[in-house]
Design a protein that fits this description.
The structure holds 2 protein chains of 2 kinds.
Chain A lengths: L15 E12 L2 E13 L4 E5 L6 H9 L6 E6 L2 E2 L7 E4 L3 H4 L6 H7 L9 H14 L15 H14 L4 E5 L7 H18 L2 E6 L2 H7 L2 E5 L6 E6 L8 H6 L1 H15 L11
Parallel strand pairs in A: 3-8, 3-9, 6-7, 7-8
Antiparallel strand pairs in A: 1-2, 1-4, 4-5, 9-10
Chain B lengths: L3 H11 L16 H6 L4 H18 L11 H13 L2 H33 L1 H14 L4 H12 L3 H25 L3 H9 L4 H39 L3 H11 L3 H29 L1 H8 L1
The chains are: A alpha/beta, B mainly alpha.
């Protein structure tokens, strides 16, 4: 895998600004506050991770950022566009890769599905672009396979290629590495960083895996127990390129990880003071 | 049958006691059980029934002028196909079936998607469909004669009427059962509705649509034949009544045999086609 230093490639991503996002769900006559007044700013081309205990509303927050569900209050901006008013060019990478690939399309069709209709490309130009991204995830040889013929890790690679082939300004990752085995996960981490370094999109990753968050991200935001609010933002700060073995042994990595784990493992009542 | 029972009894209960749960070795099983447990047994039964038909007619076990032996029917079938008589008749029937089937299924698929995709369409159409689909198609044929007279339009309409509602319902349940993640995937890529309908909703509903198409195919053929009988001036249903009135019993049975063969082949062809169209759905279930 070739390693490109972040400084050499131009930034393609746009900034994301989240202003006072709250989300209330109502069910059975009662209401439940899932996300409570979250404000966040993501720099163009930055890799931000959001960690939090399960049920803290982090996926809800990400879906609001993506424009998949509307917030109860607050606004989200991509660059200077109000996303809550009109969906913008962001792509959401789903946790359930096996279901997010369309089973009736082969790998190539799945990847082309993301951009051919938006952009008036000739057949050969579309195919070239598809194969460019398939090559990045190492699946060129499998372009005519159907999803069920691929392993879980390969299916998620296809989903990643499809997301990036749309060339979004921001990529929103909803625990996309949580349902593959541990080795495949490390493999996909390295792949994701490599792609991010090449394309410099803005990335927001939601996860409950602290190691994953610290390994991938520039900054890690910590979400409290429900209702989710941001209680801390930590700079990961290890040098890039990051490598599976060496980065995990980096004293900085270990320090940040321990700090975050301590933050997450405190009781809900104690962690209630917003740090931002 | 009297021979089978003791055999069967000795193979399962009457023999020496074996270890509980042990499967009796093949050699200990009765001959009949061994034969029935093969792939050929299904075809053997068909052959046996045809032989029974032949024997009952040939040896006078059934005393009737209207029970020709199977072999005589096959000779008549051969003769009537060569003469072109039966081919013309079955051709008329299939041509009506095809037009009514395509019309009804096409309409049913459109209505089904409308119901699944638009609340307004569902609220408006669903009660009507629920009522209409309970009406036996055969019951609407006599009044329809006033509208269409005798002839193909009447029969085509009857066939379309019979298949449109089941087709609409299976399409609607297919499009309604779509996994929400597919629509979210489509939304995250900002794809227009018409494109999503074509590339996501339609294929997602396809297994249901294919099941509806397969059931409708049999239904369409039945309704064609029945409407030819009620209001016919052509086709195999009319031919069956004609030959019955004229006491041309052998020709009548030959027509039934031909209809059976054609229906069977159509169904087999359909299954092959279905397997190709939704190959991804089959293999998905298997894994």
């Amino acid at each position: 895998m070739k390693l490109v230093t972040p400084q050499t490639t131009p930034i393609n991503g746009q900034s994301i600004r989240i202003e006072g996002i709250s989300k209330t769900f109502s069910s059975h006559g009662g209401t439940m506050l899932a996300v409570d007044d979250v404000a966040l700013s993501v720099r163009p081309g930055e890799f931000l991770a959001i960690v939090g205990p399960s049920g803290c509303g982090k996926s809800t927050l990400l879906q609001i950022i993506a424009g998949l569900i509307p917030p109860t209050s607050g606004r989200v901006f991509l660059g200077d566009k109000d996303v809550t008013a009109q969906p913008a060019h962001m792509v959401y990478l789903f946790q359930q890769y096996s279901k997010s690939l369309l089973p009736w399309m082969n790998v190539e069709e799945n990847v082309m599905f993301s951009f051919t209709h938006r952009e008036q490309l000739s057949k050969s130009a579309a195919r070239d672009r598809c194969h460019e991204y398939l090559q990045m995830v190492g699946l060129t040889a499998f372009h005519s396979y159907f999803p069920w013929q691929l392993s879980g890790g390969m299916q998620q690679r296809v989903a990643i290629a499809r997301a990036l082939a749309a060339e979004p300004h921001a990529l929103l990752l909803d625990e996309p590495f949580s349902s593959v085995d541990a080795l495949t996960r490390l493999d996909l981490h390295a792949l994701m960083l490599d792609l991010w370094t090449q394309k410099r999109f803005t990335a927001v990753l939601v996860t409950h895996d602290v190691d994953e968050a610290v390994f991938l991200a520039d900054r890690v935001a910590v979400l409290s127990h429900r209702p989710g609010r941001i209680v801390d933002i930590v700079d990961a700060g290890m040098p890039r390129p990051r490598l599976p073995v060496t980065t995990h042994q980096d004293p900085r990595f270990i320090a940040v990880r321990n700090q975050l784990l301590a933050r997450l493992l405190t009781k809900p009542d104690a962690a209630d003071v917003p740090a931002v | 049958m009297a021979m089978v029972l003791p055999n069967h009894a000795s193979a399962t209960g009457g023999g020496k006691p074996t270890r509980p749960g042990a499967v009796a070795p093949a050699a200990k099983r009765g001959l009949v059980a061994q034969i029935l447990d093969t792939r050929a047994s299904g075809i053997l039964l068909v052959i046996a029934l045809l032989l029974l038909w032949e024997a009952t007619a040939r040896f006078g076990w059934v005393q009737s002028q209207n029970w020709p032996p199977f072999s005589a029917v096959m000779v008549a079938l051969y003769r009537n196909i060569l003469s072109g008589e039966l081919l013309a008749v079955i051709g008329q029937t299939l041509w009506v079936t095809l037009r009514g089937y395509l019309l009804g299924c096409g309409l049913g698929i459109v209505i089904g998607f409308a119901i699944a995709m638009w609340r307004m369409a569902r609220l408006t159409l669903e009660p009507t469909i629920d009522i209409m689909r309970t009406i036996p198609t055969t019951a609407v044929i006599p009044p329809l004669i006033f509208v269409f007279g005798l002839g193909d339009p009447l029969k085509i309409f009857a066939v379309a009427f019979a298949v449109v509602f089941p087709m609409a319902l299976s399409t609607a349940s297919g499009a309604g059962a779509i996994d929400p993640i597919y629509t979210q995937v489509a939304r995250t890529f900002g794809l227009p509705r018409s494109y999503v309908l074509r590339r996501v909703y339609f294929p997602a509903a396809l297994p249901f649509i294919m099941a509806g198409l397969r059931t409708s195919l049999g239904l369409a053929l039945i309704v064609t034949v029945v409407s030819e009988m009620i209001a016919g001036n052509s086709g195999i249903g009319f031919y069956l009544f004609q030959t019955q009135y004229a006491m041309r019993v052998t020709d009548m049975y030959a027509a039934i045999i031909l209809l059976t063969i054609v229906a069977y082949l159509i169904n087999r062809l359909f299954l092959t086609w279905e397997g190709r169209v939704i190959h991804w759905a089959r293999t998905r279930e298997a894994t």
